[in-house]
């Protein structure tokens, strides 16, 4: 029968209660509490973005314009099953505080599971709800799923189970609609109505739809529900992964992470405070951190001193390796106290009182015969400069440059102030440099902040501190600067040693040229005891003939860095010149990895070089190690500590006291 005109259709039935599907309501099993603890730990640790509703969690089923707040479930007996994983919980007082309940949607969640519901209303796609989906890569079949052990152990624990594999197929859900990257893993959120899907990482970023009082702008900012393909007005970069906000009245677009940029900061690369400005009047100076051009149309940090033109990009200035995280807008500026940073006081025309030594030091001219075996106490390198400081009562020497090292300074290699320590630690393992990853018994700079996240590792060798922030190296035609990349963040190939940079490194401003600090800090000129001329560092050349090393008597690749004397036709490997213990000065007591017996370090100054007991090679370094092994019945010679470890580990005699003797 046809309906009459003007009659209204009956109203639709009310939506059913959002309870767990019978298939997803899992029975109680043994050790369920232990499994849930592990699951909650994984769910809570997975936070790829800033969580705005961490303290007051939001029910992700609710619409972001009218959000529902989850409340802790006090009555455990009324708790049915989790809407995310489908598991039930036995009534127990131990579970109080671990359960959430939405009174409006009438759903329950475990603590941690509330962040991964089976259905999700996301600001990136407000038109339709998104469903938690599992895809079988072998069959291509997609099915609605729930949060279970498989999801926690494969996706959230960063395991390699199919996570690095992204298979292209005929299914439209191959890429995340927000970041446009291939979906990693088997689980994601999808819209069953339109071709929209989110990977797990993007689904966890829940931006606010409206920021009423933003820090960076004088008008409210509205969430822009599309990836921003134009530069952000605060940082000048394009980042589609970062949600964006807009003020259409001012034609202002800003990333979510740039809305709360600090207004006043202090970084160790500049002596003055830096202020964030929305634009710069005019500048010809590049960014003083990455040394790329600074666009005047976008926000930057700059120095407001009249005679200073220091400018840095917003993201460069607030990088985690550059800025210490302290905002100084309302903090008074501390006066500079220069008296505490000078390392010595002048006593006479050529005498100084240095803070690292109890006797007076006298400035003397270098004599090649008299001072051939003297070492600088600060950098441990030989005394071969024109002027150096010599103790008038004992064997203590300092290069003139090393004697002038400030007791406290700000350096680009660390985001906190550094203080100079003139003595090595008694534990050998605590004398390593954060930058070049080498151990040394000389002076070093250590972080002055007590709660630094790096702890005892936040110390830098004086040789690394003396390297400029920005300069042109003889091995490359373009200027190089200190990279802001973290250790292990990417694999950068050093052009000097042909190895991956282990710590900090310097990179070119125009090309991919990079040098590690072990290569940058080696001297360009050294003295060899069997040559009357100084050896110059050669940065590789086109091979035209066969070269042989003067020390190890092995073939030398001329494409690598090596030392040479063109007058005497001598070529030497760089590692043969220095060896592994070049920065260990004889005479200082150290404990090496819990050693309890005595190990001697002797100067390798004889004409016949001793042979290492472990590797069978002649000791190439300026020092070598001597130790008596009872199992072998005689003194053993070691060219390096690596050989010493290998042999003592095999003989089961690794608990040895370590002293260094000249």
From TrEMBL:
Matching SMART domains: PHD
A Pfam family assignment: C1_2
Chain intervals for the UniProt region annotation (Disordered): 1-35
Domain Zinc finger PHD-type: 81-156, 231-291, 493-553
Keywords of this entry: Metal-binding, Repeat, Zinc, Zinc-finger
Transmembrane segments: none
Keyword Ribonucleoprotein: no
Domain of life: Eukaryota
Zinc-finger keyword on record: yes
Compositional bias per record (Low complexity), positions renumbered to this chain: 18-29
InterPro entries according to UniProt: C1-like_sf, DC1, DC1-like_CT, Vacuole_Formation_Reg, Znf_PHD
Molecular function per GO: zinc ion binding
Protein name per its UniProtKB record: Protein VACUOLELESS GAMETOPHYTES
Phylogenetic placement of the source organism: Eukaryota, Viridiplantae, Streptophyta, Embryophyta, Tracheophyta
């Amino acid at each position: 029968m046809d309906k009459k005109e003007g009659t209204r259709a009956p109203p639709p039935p009310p939506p059913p209660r959002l309870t767990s599907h019978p298939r997803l309501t899992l029975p109680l099993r043994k050790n369920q509490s232990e499994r849930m603890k592990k699951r909650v730990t994984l769910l809570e640790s997975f936070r790829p973005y800033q969580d705005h509703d961490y303290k007051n969690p939001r029910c992700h089923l609710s619409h972001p314009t009218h959000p529902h707040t989850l409340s802790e479930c006090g009555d455990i007996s009324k708790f049915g099953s989790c809407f995310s994983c489908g598991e039930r919980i036995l009534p127990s007082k131990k579970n109080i505080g671990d359960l959430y309940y939405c009174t409006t949607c009438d759903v329950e969640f475990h603590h941690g599971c509330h962040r991964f519901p089976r259905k999700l209303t996301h600001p990136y796609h407000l038109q339709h709800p998104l469903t938690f989906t599992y895809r079988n890569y072998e069959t291509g079949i997609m099915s609605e799923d729930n949060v279970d052990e498989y999801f926690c152990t494969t996706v959230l624990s960063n395991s390699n189970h199919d996570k690095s594999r992204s298979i292209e197929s005929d299914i439209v859900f191959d890429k995340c609609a927000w970041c446009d990257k291939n979906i990693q893993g088997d689980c994601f959120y999808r819209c069953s109505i339109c071709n929209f899907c989110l990977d797990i990482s993007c689904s966890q970023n829940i931006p606010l739809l409206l920021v009423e009082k933003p820090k960076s702008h004088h008008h409210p900012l509205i969430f822009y529900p599309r990836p921003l393909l134009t530069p952000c007005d605060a940082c000048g970069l394009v980042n589609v992964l970062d949600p964006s906000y807009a003020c259409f009245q001012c034609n202002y677009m800003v990333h979510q992470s740039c809305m709360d940029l600090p207004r006043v900061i202090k970084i160790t690369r500049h002596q003055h405070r830096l202020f964030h400005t929305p634009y710069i009047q005019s500048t010809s100076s590049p960014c003083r951190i990455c040394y790329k051009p600074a666009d005047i149309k976008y926000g930057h940090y700059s120095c407001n001193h009249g005679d200073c033109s220091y400018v840095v990009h917003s993201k460069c200035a607030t990088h985690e390796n550059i800025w210490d995280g302290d905002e100084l807008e309302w903090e008074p500026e501390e006066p500079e106290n220069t008296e505490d940073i000078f390392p010595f006081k002048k006593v006479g025309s050529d005498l100084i009182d240095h803070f690292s030594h109890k006797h007076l030091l006298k400035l003397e001219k270098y004599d090649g015969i008299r001072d051939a075996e003297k070492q600088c106490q600060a950098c441990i390198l030989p005394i071969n400069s024109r002027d150096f400081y010599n103790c008038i009562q004992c064997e203590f020497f300092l290069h003139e440059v090393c004697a002038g090292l400030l007791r406290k300074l700000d350096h680009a290699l660390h985001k906190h102030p550094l203080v100079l320590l003139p003595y090595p630690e008694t534990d050998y393992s605590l004398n390593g440099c954060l930058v070049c990853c080498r151990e040394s018994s000389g002076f070093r700079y250590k972080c002055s902040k007590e709660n630094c996240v790096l702890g005892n590792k936040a110390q830098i060798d004086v040789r690394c501190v003396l390297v400029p922030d920005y300069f042109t190296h003889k091995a490359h035609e373009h200027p190089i600067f200190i990279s802001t990349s973290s250790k292990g963040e990417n694999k950068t190939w050093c052009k000097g040693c042909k190895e991956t940079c282990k710590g900090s490194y310097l990179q070119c401003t125009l090309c991919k040229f990079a040098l590690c600090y072990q290569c940058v800090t080696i001297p360009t000129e050294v003295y060899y005891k069997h040559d009357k001329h100084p050896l110059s560092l050669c940065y590789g050349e086109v091979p035209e003939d066969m070269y042989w090393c003067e020390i190890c008597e092995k073939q030398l690749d001329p494409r690598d860095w090596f030392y040479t004397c063109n007058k005497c036709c001598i070529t030497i490997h760089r590692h043969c010149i220095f060896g592994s213990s070049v920065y260990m000065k004889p005479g200082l007591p150290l404990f090496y990895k819990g050693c309890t017996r005595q190990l001697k370090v002797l100067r390798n100054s004889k004409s016949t070089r001793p042979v290492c007991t472990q590797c069978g090679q002649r000791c190439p370094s300026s020092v070598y190690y001597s130790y008596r092994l009872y199992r072998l019945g005689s003194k053993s010679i070691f060219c390096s500590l690596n050989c010493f470890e290998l042999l003592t580990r095999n003989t089961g005699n690794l608990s040895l006291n370590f002293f260094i003797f000249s």
